[in-house]
């Protein structure tokens, strides 16, 4: 049935990051706002997803500062928040408003997430950062530990974490309903932006509304080109994380929650090939997870660019779910949802979840889902606001959840980098505790990027 500072020395080596490795969990904020006291928000990135994130902030409190590299987007946001101070550089915004803001949202290209969040959290400000939390594994580990150190309320913007269907499915996976899980398959219809491009050689004039140095941020400087922005930055290694980084914090979220999919030991990709400027047009990535805290060893397969699972078990599950649709229209809708989704195979059964957010129905071999208990959410942004006001941490808080999910997701891009030639690339052996690809020093710069133009963590 379907249902709807002094920190610098500590951080000098990636090995040092393993000292408190995932022992932190969610932390209550050091200081909280009274329940009837308005939260003062700063919003970095106010177009695209930033428009809805800033709207959420406006409903939860006062937006007192807004920042964007695009004057047109900044002007549109200023019409909604006429009393908010306007900025193009987040550093100036934080410096001038340290005493005037309590919390901030980050809705920018991936490569800027960590430097923005780091600066704000070091000031003791609560952080909401869009997925993926960071562009690199090192940054994800760093922000998780930084949030715990400064005891700030945090939440990653993978809003599906609040879906009841997702939480129900994760709770089912924690039972013995499927038996030991052997395989997890996740697929997406992304990318829906250009990939497979060479770096542009022409140097058109920067549009008057774009502040290009602020867009580049910590990336290596390059001339402006409309091939990068808006939105198209997702497909470039310098700025984005490709289809995997864009969607897996959504589509992997349910099995990650239910099966504790942390600390894979290896990852290997098969791709259409890429030029190490943009991501490939498609990829298939295999992760191997060892036994962890009673969860059996299992395999996770990721598919993008139109690729999908082809196992007999998956085809059988898809036909079973399709057969339960009540009419032709419902069957058509089901097929449309199945352009992305998640399939979990255990020794005793399977679970199929169409769509990106595990919110479009759940299917198992039996018609009725097992009865499970799970915590319902007041809303994803609302969880963060609750934590700011002294309540329990949001589900996707950095130390206890989001940093680990982001690390698992982004590990796949090490294998994608190693599969630059069409076909299957090198298997990356992974030491999760020390954030090290033990057999692939050539991907170290993907694990921990170099920061340019005066930007630091």
Description:
This protein has 457 residues and is of the alpha/beta class. It has 2 domains: 7-161 and 379-395, NAD(P)-binding Rossmann-like Domain (Rossmann fold); 163-375 and 396-457, 2-Layer Sandwich (Dihydrodipicolinate Reductase, domain 2), CATH 3.30.360. Helix content is 32%, strand content 16%. Helix 5 runs parallel beside helix 6. The longest helix is centred in the C-terminal third of the chain and has 20 residues, at 398-417. The radius of gyration is 21 Å and the shape is globular. The N and C termini lie far apart (48 Å).
Write the layout of secondary structure elements.
Elements: H1 7-10, E1 39-44, H2 49-60, E2 61-67, H3 71-80, E3 85-87, H4 90-97, E4 103-106, H5 113-122, E5 126-130, H6 137-150, E6 154-157, H7 164-173, E7 181-187, H8 212-216, H9 242-251, H10 253-259, E8 266-271, E9 283-289, E10 298-304, H11 312-323, H12 328-337, E11 341-346, E12 350-354, H13 380-388, H14 398-417, E13 423-424, E14 428-431, E15 436-437, H15 444-447
Parallel strand pairs: 1-2, 1-4, 2-3, 4-5, 5-6, 7-10
Antiparallel strand pairs: 7-11, 8-9, 8-13, 8-14, 9-10, 11-12, 14-15
Helix pairs in contact: 5-6, 6-14, 7-10, 9-14
What labels would you give this structure?
Rossmann fold; six-stranded parallel beta sheet; nine-stranded mixed beta sheet; 16% strand; globular; disordered N terminus; alpha/beta; Dihydrodipicolinate Reductase, domain 2; 457 residues; 15 strands
């Amino acid at each position: 049935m379907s249902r709807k500072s002094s920190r610098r020395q500590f951080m000098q080596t990636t090995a040092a990051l393993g000292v408190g490795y995932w022992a932190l969990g969610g932390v209550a904020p050091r200081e909280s706002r009274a329940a009837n006291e308005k939260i003062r928000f700063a919003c970095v990135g106010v177009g695209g997803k930033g428009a809805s994130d800033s709207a959420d902030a406006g409903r939860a409190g006062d937006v007192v500062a807004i920042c964007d590299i695009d004057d047109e987007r900044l002007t549109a946001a200023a019409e909604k928040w006429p009393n908010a101070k306007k900025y193009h550089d987040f550093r100036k915004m934080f410096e001038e408003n340290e005493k005037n803001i309590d919390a901030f949202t980050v809705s920018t290209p991936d490569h800027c997430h960590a430097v923005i969040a780091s600066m704000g959290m070091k000031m003791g400000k609560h952080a909401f950062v869009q997925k993926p939390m960071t562009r690199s594994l090192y940054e994800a580990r760093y922000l998780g530990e930084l949030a715990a150190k400064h005891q700030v309320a945090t939440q990653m913007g993978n809003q599906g974490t609040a879906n009841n269907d997702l939480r129900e499915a994760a709770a089912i996976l924690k039972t013995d309903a499927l038996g030991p899980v052997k395989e997890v398959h996740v697929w997406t219809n992304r990318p829906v932006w250009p990939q497979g491009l060479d770096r542009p050689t022409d140097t058109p004039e920067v549009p008057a509304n774009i502040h290009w140095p602020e867009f580049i941020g910590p990336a290596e400087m390059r001339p402006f080109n409309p091939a990068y922005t808006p939105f198209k930055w997702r497909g470039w290694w310098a700025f984005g994380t490709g289809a995997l980084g864009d969607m897996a914090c959504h589509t992997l979220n349910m099995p990650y929650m239910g099966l504790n999919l942390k600390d894979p030991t290896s990852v290997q990709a098969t791709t259409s090939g890429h030029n190490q400027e943009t991501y490939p047009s498609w990829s298939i990535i295999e992760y191997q997870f060892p036994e962890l805290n009673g969860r059996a060893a299992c395999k996770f397969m990721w598919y993008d660019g139109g690729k999908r699972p082809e196992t007999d078990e998956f085809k059988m599950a898809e036909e079973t779910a399709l057969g339960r649709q009540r009419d032709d229209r419902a069957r058509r809708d089901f097929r449309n949802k199945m352009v992305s989704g998640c399939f979990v195979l255990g020794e005793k059964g399977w679970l199929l979840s169409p769509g990106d957010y595990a919110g479009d129905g759940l299917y198992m071999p039996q018609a009725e889902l097992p009865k499970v208990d799970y915590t319902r959410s007041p809303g994803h942004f609302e969880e963060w606001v609750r934590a700011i006001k002294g309540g329990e941490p949001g589900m996707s808080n950095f130390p206890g959840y989001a940093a680990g999910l982001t690390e698992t997701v982004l590990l796949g891009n090490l294998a994608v980098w190693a599969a630059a030639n069409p076909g299957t690339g090198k298997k990356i052996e992974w030491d999760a505790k020390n954030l090290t690809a033990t057999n692939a020093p050539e991907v170290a710069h993907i694990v921990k990027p170099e920061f340019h133009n005066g930007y630091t963590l």
